[in-house]
Every structure is written in structure tokens, then in C-alpha cells.
Amino acid sequence: MPKEVTKLIHKYLRHDKKFPHVWCPGCGNGIILGALIRAIDDLGLQKDEIVLASGIGCSGRMPVYVDFNTLHTTHGRALTFSTGIKMVNPDLTVIAVMGDGDATAIGGNHFIHAARRNVNLTALVINNQIYGMTGGQHSPATPYDALSTTSHYGHIEQPFPIAELAVTAGACFVARGTVYHVKLLESLIKKAVKKRGFSIVEVMSNCHIQFGRRNQLGGPVEMLKWLRSHAVRVDKAREMSAQDMAGKFTIGVLADREYPSYVEEYERVRKKARDSAHKESP
Amino acid sequence: MFKRLHNAPARGRRPKGKGWVVAHHERENEDLEQAELPQDLGESTQDRPGKPKTYYDPIIFRDWCKSCGICIAFCPKHVIGRGKDTKPVIERPDDCIGCRFCELHCPDFAITVRERPVKGILHEA
């Protein structure tokens, strides 16, 4: 008999917290939290081996509900706190959950440098294309010509392709999923957590309250259908022309490569320094 | 990456009512009596006669449900319909094929799909 999914999720939730959770009806954050819990359960990790850190925003509520070691940090600094945790205790599995604004605007600097340093972390960037919690201001991932409270006449900037940015910045494992393709998302999170080195999963999510409503994209169902019709698998996208790909995004594994991770390199340098100090001393 | 949906309700002219999802409200009017329910549940209704059909019971925790409508809209067999209080109700549990789409996509962890242990007997929630 297959596992009963909801029963499994309940095992990882903090039942002293107030449920149902604070997110809006149909919010993708809940779907992502479910996928994350299933991925962690499949990997067979214990609750105490995991650290879930988050920044500020809707996604910042995620660690509140799960019974791992959790950390709710300052805006954009989920990765910096996670780096600290990883350096102090490299045995822990550290996952940082961020929103698109949290990761690429306020914490944009930390994001690219964590990718460049290749610290052994997993970053989960939830891209709902807007600042949802603060009232619908445009974020670095808001598409061109989209409406938001700070772009009443259409957004005039181009968005960040977050996953491609991470590939260029040098992350070991980069993948993109959507909240519609939940099984794929689950396997991507699993691969990302297992990977040694900096791994990032960008999740295209729906914010029908702040983004969908202003841009006449409909409710959660219509936005999930929009995600379904605009996502193209990476292998399929290679065969498609640029014209066909216009307005769409790729899902799947975008980069999977091996670099020495920061924690291992740091240990190596420490050992080298210690050895040379021994030789020098009489 | 970005295109407005033309058939979505226009700004300011959203249909009244609590539920956000309007695409599937017509299902409420569908006559339930017309739906074909297997009469003899012990008998196989599948294409392969040798294999007995497995039945599933989708169960909804109504206290956690925020009636977003994802389960109602995406159910491939239209097992779930919308109740009068906009929350989902299981209308045709015998049609459930156990794909678990609703369970995996429920943002509020409010649905579980349970395999029915004894064939033909409804599982009490």
C-alpha cells in the first residue's frame, strides 16, 4: 500500500502552532512545503539533522510550521546565517528557503556569492514574481509590463532569470520546478539536498492575491494552469526554437557539476596551516 | 513569460461569492442522480477482468480547508465537487482512481486519499 501522504506530512508539522497556516487559500507555499517534507522523508533524514532557515516574506513563515531545527532570520540573510551554521557544524543538512525578492534583491549579493563560494547548502527560491507579504510591490523577478502597486502602468524592467543567474554564478546544482509539477519538484529537492556543494532549486509559484489579481491571471486554478502551459522540460527546450520559447521557462535540472565545496576546502587549508605551523615551531 | 489570460474575470468585475475559482462552479448544477455509480461493487469494473478494482476514499479535513478549489478543478474523474459553503465535498468516491493529485497539490494538507481496505464498503472517515 502506498504511503498516505498527508499522514506523513502531519508527522513533521508542529502541532502546537496554529493551523490552518497563514498563507492565502491556494498559495503555492503550502504545496512546496509538502514537497519538501516528502523529499526529506524519502531521503531518510532525521528531524534533528536538518536546519531550515528562512528570510522575511511569505516564505519566511515556512520554518514555523515544521519540526526541524529552524531559524527565521533577517531580510535577505537566510544564506548568510546558513553559511554560519554550516561552517560551525558541517554535519547538519542546511536548507535555506527564500522568496524571489528575498534572494535576489535584498539578499542578491549573498545569493551570488554563496553560489560562487560553493558552500554546501541547499537554497530553495520561491519565485512568485512579486513581493506578496508587503503589499504587491514589484520584485526583481516581476515580468516586463506586469502591473503591481509600484508599477501601475506596467513594469518597465526586465526580470532576473534566477536559475540561469545561479548557473552563471557557479552553483553546483541548479534546477527549476513549478508548484504544478509536484512530483518533479520533489525529485529535484531530493537531488539538491543530496548534492555536495551549493545547490539551488527555483520554484515557480503562484501569487494570485497580489500578482494574479492585478494582472488578470485569475485565481489559483488558473495560475496553476498557466504554470502548466508555460513550463517546458529542459531536454525539450533544446529542440525548440527561440520563437517557440518566447514567454516560456524551462523546468528540470539546468546544471549539475562537481566543484570542491567550501567546507572541504576550508578544512584542507586549516590542516595545511596547522602542519606548517608544527614544522616551523622548534 | 507573461501574458494576460483573456477569459479570466476582468478587473473589478469579479463574480460575487466567496470562492475565488469560478471556472468550475457549473459542476454544482450537474445532476448527481445522473452520475453512473457502479451498482455491484464486488464485481470488476476495469478493462482487465482478472484484476479487481481498487477503491479509494478521498477524505477532506474541513477545518483546515480554505476552499481554494485546486482539488475540485484538477480532479481527473470529477470526484470532488463544491459544497454550499464553498468547501469541497466528495461526490463520487467510487470513481476515484487514486492518482493523488489532490493530496499532493493541497496547499493546506487538508486531503488524504486512503485505499479502501474492504472492497465495496465505504471507509468511515
Question: What would you say this structure looks like, in words?
Answer:
The complex is a heterodimer of chains A (282) and B (125). Chain A is an alpha/beta fold and 282 residues long. Chain A is built from 13 helices and 8 strands. Chain A has an 8-stranded mixed β-sheet with strand order 2-1-3-4-6-5-8-7, sandwiched between helices. With 125 residues, chain B is mainly beta. Chain B has a domain at 53-117: Alpha-Beta Plaits, CATH 3.30.70.20. Chain B has helices at residues 70-74, 101-105, and strands at 56-60, 80-82, 88-90, 111-115. In chain B, strands 1-4 form a two-stranded antiparallel sheet. Chain B has a two-stranded antiparallel sheet with strand order 2-3. In chain B, strand 2 and strand 3 (88-90) form a beta hairpin. The longest helix of chain B is centred in the middle third of the chain and has 5 residues, at 70-74. At the A-B interface, helix 1, helix 2 and helix 10 of A face helix 1, helix 2 and strand 4 of B.
Helices and strands in order:
The complex is a heterodimer of chains A (282) and B (125).
Chain A: H1 5-12, H2 28-43, E1 50-54, H3 62-65, E2 69-72, H4 78-88, E3 93-99, H5 100-106, H6 108-117, E4 122-127, H7 162-169, E5 173-178, H8 182-194, E6 199-204, H9 208-212, H10 220-230, E7 231-233, H11 234-239, H12 242-245, E8 249-256, H13 262-280
Helix pairs in contact in A: 1-2, 2-8, 5-6, 6-7
Chain B: E1 56-60, H1 70-74, E2 80-82, E3 88-90, H2 101-105, E4 111-115
Antiparallel strand pairs in B: 1-4, 2-3
In percent, how much strand structure appears in the residues of chain B? 5-15%
User: What is the CATH top level name of the domain at 53-117 in chain B?
Assistant: Alpha Beta
What is the number of helical segments of chain B per DSSP (H or I, 4+ residues)?
2
Order of helices and strands of chain A: HHEHEHEHHEHEHEHHEHHEH
